[in-house]
Every structure is written in C-alpha cells, then in structure tokens.
Amino acid sequence: MGDGLGIGALRPWLRLLARRRRRLWVGAGLLGLTLLAAIGLLALSGWFITASALTGMAIRAGLDVHVPGGGIRAFAVTRTVARYLERLYNHDTVLRLLADLRGSLFAVLSRLDGATLAKQRSSDWLTRLTADIDTLDGLYLRLLAPPLVALALIGSLTAFLALWLPTLAGLVGAGLVLAWLWLSFGQAWLGMAASRAQVEHRQRLRSLSVEHLQGLAELEAHDCTARHRHRLLACERRLHAAQRRLARCTALGSALVGLVVGLAMLATLWLAAAAWQHDAVSGAVMVMLPLAVLAIGEALALLPNAFTSLGTTRTAAERLNALEAAERRAPSGRSRPLADGPLELSLEGVGLRYPGAWHMALDAVSLSLKGGSRLVLTGTSGAGKSTIAALLTRQLLPDTGDIRLNDIPLAEIDEGSLRERVALLGQRIDLFEGSLADNLRIADPAATDERLWQALDWATLADWAEALSAGLATPVGEGGHALSGGQARRLALARLWLRDPGLVILDEPFAGLDRATLASLVPRLDGWLRGRTALFLVHQLDDDSVAPPGVTHRAHLVEGELTDFARYCAIGQDDGKATTMPNEVRNG
Amino acid sequence: MAGAPDAQRWLSHHAARQRGWLLLAVAAGLAASAATLVQLALLAWIVSQLLVANAELASLTPAFLALASCLVLRALAQWTQEVAGQEASLRVRARVRAELLAHLAALGPVRGAAYPAGGVASQLVEQVEALDGFIARFLPQCILAVATPLAIVSCVAWLDWLAALFLLLAAPMIPLFMALVGVGAERVNREQFAAVTRLSGHFLDRVRGLTTLQLFDRTTEATREVEAAADHYRRLSLRPLRLAFLSSAVLEFFASVAIAVVAVYVGFGLLGYIGYGPSSELTLFSGLLILLLAPEFFQPLRSLAQHYHDRAAALGAARGMLTLLAERPHPQRHRASLTPGDSALVSLVDVTLAHPRRGRVLGPLDMTVLPGETLAITGPSGGGKSSLLHLLAGFVGPDSGRRCVRPGLRLAWLDQRPWLVQGSLADNLRLTAPHASDGELEAALAKVGLAELLARLPNGLDTPLGERGSGLSGGQAQRVALARLFLSEADLLLLDEPTAHLDEMSEGQVVAALQTLASEGRALVIATHHPALMRLASRCQYIAGGRLRELPGEANDG
C-alpha cells in the first residue's frame, strides 16, 4: 500500500534515521515500556480487586496480597520512571536527528547551482525550507515510533490473552491489527487529499498575501483593493475547506480508537465470561482480560492525528527531495589546475537563459582579456553583469558558447584550483554568525591573528576593529547586522586580500563607501590588483562616482547583449597585450 | 510589542464571538465524559452480576447492548467535540484575517508598506494559523479539565468517600495542579522552541551565505559545522529539560499512584483488612468502578498539558498581530470631501506632513493639478517628492491643511517597482482593469512597445509570468505595469520615478508611452530626475526640504 500514500518520498529520510537505529529502538522500547506498565497497572489492579472481593466473600484465606500489591507498586513506579526517561531520551534523539537532517540537507544545498541558490533571496524560499525541515523533524516521534510500539503492544496483548483463551486472543488480535491498519495507513489514505490541499492552499495564500501587500498602492489608486482582497479570501476559504475536511478525518480516527477498543473489550468480556461459566478461567482473570484490552487504547490514540496529516510530511519530503534533483550539473570529469599569476580570460558566443525567463540573460557575449588587464563592465541591474560573474566562477554553466581561463575550458578546471585562483566580491555580502576572525578565516583557515590584522588594515578597517573591546573576537551577528553596509563590504574585501587569486571580479565594489574611505582604499586596491586580472562590474561610469583604478578596457551590457567592448582610452596603462574585439555583437 | 494581558484579552474577545461553537465543543466533551462514566459503571455492574449474583450471561445481553450504545454515543460526542472546536477555530481565524486585511487597507499603502511584506504575510498566514490549537482544543479543554474530574470525584465520593479523598489528595487542588502543569509545559516549550530557533538560525545563516562558502571552497567544513552546532545546542537544551520534563513525570506519577493506592485500598477493604471508614461498604461493583474511574480523573489534565503549547504559540502570535493592529491610520486619510475650485482635479491647500521619526518632511505648501496638464516634480532625493505624490494620491493624510479632490476623480499609480503577481500576462493586466477585453489588453501592450514581445510568446496573453514577474526583464516589467495605466480610465496619473533603474532603451519607450498618455488628455504628475521626462512636462516644480517652488519656463536642462 506504500506508494499510493507516497511513502516512497519518505524513503531517503527514513534511511537517514536508520543511521541511529539503536537509539530509535531504545526510544521506542521506553515508549513501549511506559504503555505496557499502564496496561499492566490497570489489568493487575482489576485482577486484585476481583480476587479480593471473591476471597472476601468466600471468607477464604490464602490470597497472597503481597505479590499483587508489589506488582501494582512496581507497575506504577515503572510507568512514571519510564515516562520520564522516554521523554528525555527521545528528546535527545529528536535533537540528534535534527542535526543529521540539517547536516545532510546542507550538503545537498551546498551542491546547488547559482540559479537555484539565487531563489533563496526570496525570503519565501527560506520560510518554506524551514517549515519543511520542521515537518520532517517529527518523522520519528510522530510517524515511526508510535505505530511500531502500538503493533508490538497488540502482539504482546494477544500473546497474554492466549495464555488463557487462544481463540479469544486470535479474534481480538486480528481485530486490533485491522484497527491498527486503518488508524495508520487507512487514516493516511483518508486524509491525503485534504492534507496535501492544505499545504498547497496555504502556500498560495502566502504568495497572494505578499502580492497584496506589495500592491497596496496600485490597488488603492485603482480602487481595486476590495476586489483583490476577495481573491485572497477565496483562497482562504479553499484552505479552510481543506482544513475542515482534514479535521473531520482526524476526529473520525480519534473517535474510532475509543469505539474499536471498547468493542474489543466488550467482546473479550463476553467470551471471558462464557469461559468463566465453563470454569475455564477464574473470576479474577475474567475481569483482568477485558481491562488489559481497554488499556491498549492509549497506544492507539497516538496514531490518527499523526497519520491523517501524512500528506503534509510527504509534501515536505517531496520538496526537499526535489532539491537533491536540482544539484549542480557536475563539471566534466577532467580536473586541470590553473597556473599561478594573472589569468587570461575569454568568452566566446556565451548565451544563457534562466529557466522560465522570456529573454536571454546573456546573448552571444564574446570578449577576451589578457592576463593583468582590467575591464570595467557597465550596465543597469538585470543587464547581465552578475550573470557573467556567476559564469566565470562556475556557479552557472552557459547554455551556449565557450568560456576559458588561461585557454583551459572552464568546465575542465579543478574545483579547488578554480576557487583558489578566481575571487568574487558579490553585490550581496554574506557575513556569518560568528566572530570577526571566523568571518575572515573563511578565506584562509590557517591565517594567524597577525595576518588577519594586516587584512583589516589593508581594507581600512583596522582603526575600527582596534576600537572594539573584543577585537577580532567581536561577534558579527546574524547576517552581519552589527556592521554598516560599507564596513561589511570592506570586510569582504579583506577576505579577498587573504587569498592570492589570478582573476578578481568585483561587483559594485565601492557601493556604500564614502569618499574619504575610498581615497585611501582605492590606491591599495590598485596595488593589490597589480599582477592579477580584474573585472569591475558597475552600474554606470559617471563623474559622480569614484572610477575603478587602472582600467584598461570597458564594455557595456544592455539586456544581456554586449555593446562597445573597447580599449579604455582615458587611462593609458598599456601593457601592449590587450586584444580588442570588434564592436559588433548586436544580433537581436 | 503588545503585552501578554492585551493578547489574552484580544484572543478572549475573538473566542467569545464563537461562543456557540465553543459551548457545543464543551457540551460534547461533557457528554463524552458522561458516556464514559455510564460505560464504566455498566462494565462494573456486568462483572458484579456475573461474579457476585451469578447471573446467566445471556440474561445480561441488554446490559451488553447498552454498553455498546454508550461506546457509540461516546465516539459521536468525541467527534462532535473536535469538529465543533475546529469550526470555532476556523471562524476565529477568518475573522482575524479579515480584521488584519481591513486594518492594512485603512493604514494605506504608505504606513502599510512600512512593514516588510514577508513579515506581514507571515502574520496573515502562519501567525493566524498558530491560533488554531488554542481555540479548537485548549479553550474547551480548560473547562473540561475542571468539570470532568469534579464529576468523577463526586461519583467516587458517592461510592466511597475515602477513595475520593485519595484522588483529591493526589491532586490537592485542581487549579494548583493546573498551574504546575502550565509552568512545566510552558518551560518545556520555551526550551524546545529556543533550541530549535537557535538551530534554525544557525542553519539559515549558513544557507544564506552558501554562495560565499562555495566561492571560498568551504562547503565541506560548513557542513560539519552545521552538524556540530546542532549537537552543541542539543547538549545545551537538555540540561534545563531534565527539570522541565519532571512536570510531565509528576502528572504520570500522580495518575499511577492514585490507581495503585485506590487498587490496594479497595482490595484490602474487600478483604476486610481495613477496620475503619466506609471500606466495609465496598462491593465488587463499587470497588471495580472506583478503580476504572481513577485514570479517567487524570485524563483531562493530561490532555490539557498536551495542548498547553498551543496557548504559548497563540499568545506569541497574538502579540505580533496586536503590534500591527495598534498602529492607527492617519485621521485625515480619506477625508477629502472638499471640492477644489477652478475645475482642478486635486489641490493641496497649506498642507504639512510629518514623519514619526524624521519630523516634518513636507510643507506648508499649496499645489493644484489641472485636467490634462503634465507636471514634473524634481528635486534631491529625500526632498519630499514621494511624500508629495503620496499626499496627492491620498495614501497619507495631511497633518494640517486640506486636500481637495474633484468628486469621482479616478486615479492611477505607478512607482519604480512594478507590481506584478504570479499568473498570466492577462491576469496581471486585469488586476486593475478587470473588465478589459483581450483586444484592449493587446492594444495597451502595443502602446508600451511590447507588441513585438507579445507576438513572440507562444501562449500570448496567457503566458505565465512566474513569481514576482520573474521571466521579464526590469524594463519589460515596468512596461507591463505601464500598460495598466492605458487600460485605466484614470484622469490623473501619479508616477514616482517611473524610469529609475531602466536601461536607455526601456527608458525611451517609457517616455514615449507617457507622452501618449499625456496626449490622451490625462493629467500626469511625475516625480523624476530624468531630463526627457522634464521636457515632456507642461509645468515643472522643484521640491527640496519639503518646500515647493516653480521652475521658470520650460524645464530643459538637457
């Protein structure tokens, strides 16, 4: 019955759980012990009371009160202690599984390509990812342990009943297994459509809400607010309809637990009474058996809630599985290293279209730079500058055309060597939770404190950092919020300085920096870039902004097409090697 | 952030409006408890009839049938309780969402947009959903957790007052016991929540920076670090939990001990070992029934403890929503009933506008927009261009002075971030022109220079746009938004930097389209730096420091 329910989607995650098989068994064992003690407590108490009453009536001494009395106490203590240990142990397990889950998912994410990662910028994607992970966090404690424990208890109960009345045991056991099947798989089947619809509508409601909020101005001006709100509320109604159906299915499951267990108890009572009247069992056992059956309700009660919304877990798993499928296309099997020194760079007819886009992000872009040249590439946002940066750092692969570094096809370059030799300062600066030193050591884990200070000094951050009481140990905070935009950019520059790249790509390197800072920073940058090839990506070159230093070439991008690739005449830094491309390149 | 008592009050207010459904849930819960009581009594009676009165099994068939019908009744009552609780919750959530949306509309585009869209959207969706458990389960259970144990203990007292005393001793006072449950459950939740939040925070921090980690070839180390951090937080959170879990162990302990004590007491009483109190009156029936009732006495409290985290989640969500709801709309917004003189479309008379943190950002100033004129407003950024447009549009009200609007004036708005939604090209155009025909949509697209693109699209107007208009370039997106202006019958178009961030080509097309709009006889007010747009204007005004002055003659500084 597995794949009608989409259990296949859960398989990779179950495999992940299996790494901690022993812990899972112990946890389930403790849960089972807690429930078993509860069953034992009620059943033994019933036996004891009945035996006492019958003994009392017959005024027949000989009932040893110490054994059942001790048993009752033992069950009571076991139940308490096992519950405490179970909660503690299973909480620990869940947190360990959480670590596994995040670790393995992170490994998958870290192999995603640039286009998929770019989607992260929508906070929606992260929200969804978090929600999906949270859903899967409950896999063991909600969906795996309870049904296994319930089944084991049904088995034990059947064996226990069989000690006295094998026929009864067979009947009740079969009935309870059927009930178990329904309460887990049956409920999952019943709630599947509604729980999947719920996830889908909730997501739709979220994106409609974001759209509504972003469009408040247009909607109010055009007097359409009410109309769009109706669309949103219609989606809410669909969500609520799904939730209502889901709640009814879950309620049905919960009600069934009581009904089924009660009926099993009643059948047991009837058959045990018949056996008692034929002197096959004692009166006390006749009472004990139905009470034991009654007490199993607690184990089954855990099932309907978790299983009716199996669709939610399944959807979460499917979405996370899809990430795995989107992993970066592996570069060709060859891994050639890049030599030291400035890198030579060439793009030949490079084209790229993002999935679902109507236009080419880059269209037949050709350019080449000799080692040590500096190109400034201008264009409005969305013209394709960042796409070129992503292509050169192999975060994206081109649909057409050929990219080479030092005349080696980009796809054949060794991963480690490429990362070592090509550096990118992106528009978005990623700073991580951790200290200043942690953030710098991402570039060079082996760097000494002294070298880190040199890097800060180079990026004109040393004065600022020295004024901090914790110095290099100063926490940078989530996403680097403690730093201003300009400081974050300079910290990222310091990170680049710690490496020795042959090609440096700087996307809007001076954004958010004031003139005084730039006056000391730009000459240092100029010096550091000597002996490296550099690519500056800037919005526009005008009189207001500080020009990138030592530029030898310039080019302009309009909607993914390169125009005006030319030697830059204003600055006469001529190494005599730069090649100039023909000025064609427009072929819309 | 609003305080916890406010949040509690606000939630109670919303719950009170669904009193009917909540009462039904409580009534059904009580009925289920009553059915349980009868069912257990019947069970004890049947046993006693068999063992003590030596009745024939067949003669007890009616009792068996009655017991079976009790089971069915109880199942129905449980189902009703859950469904009624859910219905109350659905209705509360729908109302809260409507309240939030109405409030956002009242706040208007300027104050409403002061909050990040993602955050407000999560309030509208996830936070509202977080009220579910509190309304559907916790509230009814609060009453049931008091009423059911009381009913059971009275029943036990009637059978044997000493046994009832044991139960009461096990739970000295129900309110005290509930407080214990609450504190413990709240603590468990807080700790668990904190651990998971810290973990997610760390994880998301690394995911956000993945590109950088890839570029520095540090993903392997980062993966190990993610695992190590998770393990670190696990160890941190376990220590406080060792204590916090004691609360659930205490509940379990009392439940177990009560059963054990009752069982031993009843057993010894039946054996005649206890020579005092009411134990000599005990029979198999009363003894067995007392034993069966003992776990039921604790069951509602255990359910309440299970639902306790729903309360914390709902209060947290309510506090966030109240912060948004506490923001009052500007009193002057939507109070433009005055008609301007001189056939003007809209006029501002001696208006001022202040920003909560930046102080006065505009005025005092006067301004009049006449039909058909094209007015360019220029000036340094932060000088008040956008605020002036917001005031003209009525998105904010003036702090002093008057805004006069010609009755029945139709407005249209465009700013530098084109508003696009997930859906087809046609859906996007019809957002503000629901009744436009396909032909009209095509004509509007042609006027903004998108006819060629439209012709190339295989599905034409039905081509999907993707989330936030992904698939379009920045210039194309802005022109789609511009096409909406052609579809509207607005007399006055307000445009805030419509050519910002566009390349030269798109820029030219937007300017040409605006010229067409102006030639259709509509009035345009354009905040811009762009020389071409300023040349388009019949009148050009300069705004700096919130003060407006006329630029002399044609504005053609090229």
From TrEMBL, chain A:
Compartments where located: Cell membrane
Keyword check for DNA damage: no
Keyword field contains Transcription regulation: no
Domain ABC transporter span(s) in chain numbering: 345-584
Chain ranges of the ABC transmembrane type-1 domain: 30-312
One BP term from GO: cell redox homeostasis
GO molecular function terms attached to this record: ABC-type oligopeptide transporter activity; ATP binding; ATP hydrolysis activity
GO cellular component: plasma membrane
Xref: Pfam families: ABC_membrane, ABC_tran
Record-annotated membrane-spanning stretches: 24-49, 139-165, 171-194, 246-272, 284-303
Membrane topology: Multi-pass membrane protein
SMART domains in UniProt: AAA (SM00382)
Record keywords, A-Z: ATP-binding, Membrane, Nucleotide-binding, Transmembrane, Transmembrane helix
Principal place of residence: membrane
PANTHER family named in the record: ATP-BINDING CASSETTE SUB-FAMILY B MEMBER 10, MITOCHONDRIAL, ATP-DEPENDENT PERMEASE MDL1, MITOCHONDRIAL
Protein's name in the database: ATP-binding cassette, subfamily C, CydC
Automatic annotation (TrEMBL), chain B:
Gene Ontology biological process terms from the UniProt entry: cysteine transport
Subcellular location: Cell membrane
PANTHER family noted in UniProt: ATP-BINDING CASSETTE SUB-FAMILY B (PTHR24221), GLUTATHIONE_L-CYSTEINE TRANSPORT SYSTEM ATP-BINDING_PERMEASE PROTEIN CYDD (PTHR24221:SF261)
Protein name (Swiss-Prot/TrEMBL): ATP-binding cassette, subfamily C, CydD
Keywords: ATP-binding, Membrane, Nucleotide-binding, Transmembrane, Transmembrane helix
A Pfam family of this chain: ABC_tran
Sequence intervals crossing the membrane: 21-47, 59-77, 138-159, 165-185, 243-276
Annotated ABC transmembrane type-1 domain residues: 23-313
Major subcellular site: membrane
Natural source organism: Billgrantia gudaonensis
